Amino acid sequence: MSSSRIERTDSTLTNWLLESSLLQSGIDVTSLPVATLAYLGDAVHSFFAKVRSLNSLSVGRIHKKVASLVSREFQAKCLEQLFPRLSERELSVVKRAMNSKCAKKYGNDENYRKSTALEALIGYLYLTGDRDRLLEVLSFSLTENGDDRVR
Fold first, then answer.
1. Kind and range of the H or E element at 132?
2. Which secondary-structure segment (H or E) carries 144?
3. I need a labelling partner for 122 at 20 to 30 A (CA). Which of 8, 18, 27, 89 fits?
């Protein structure tokens, strides 16, 4: 698969993901449980990482890359770097998620709490339809020091 074809596929799938008809359902995102936001955020983040990894061509290589990108350690590090860039509303979602019962599933594992918070933020941004900010957060979660973590 050529690089330009991968980029077109990446763009097409990302547009499909962001144009979901679910965004039109009128869900009150603020009333959803944190676990629901994190569950959806995990799916969106994982899907985005998989689409961005298509240049690996091998399912095994894609899985290995994506597993490292969605690990609790990696997501916790990403959230730490995002903290200064969060709006008041985003920070509220993150704090609510970090203090939730589902984030304390593994006791006081700080990485698990932070990864749950990042996933909840992604789920929140997806459901509110803030496409630009969602793409910004997703892209940031796949880049480190200007280097694309996926490619």
1. helix 131-141
2. strand 143-144
3. 8
CATH number of 3-15+30-143, picked from 3.40.190.10, 1.10.1520.10, 1.10.10.60, 3.40.50.2300: 1.10.1520.10
Query: Is there a contact between 134 and 126 (Cβ–Cβ < 8 Å)?
Result: yes
Query: What letter does residue 83 receive in the DSSP assignment?
Result: G
Q: Which residues are catalytic?
A: 42
Cβ–Cβ < 8 Å for 1, 58: no
Integer Cα distance of 130 and 19 in angstroms: 11
Mean pLDDT, rounded, of the chain: 80
Q: Which residues contact 69 (CB under 8 A, 6 or more apart)?
A: 49, 141, 142, 149, 150
**Which pLDDT does position 95 carry in this prediction?**
94
C-alpha span between 48 and 23 (Å, rounded): 17
CA distance 115 to 42: 9
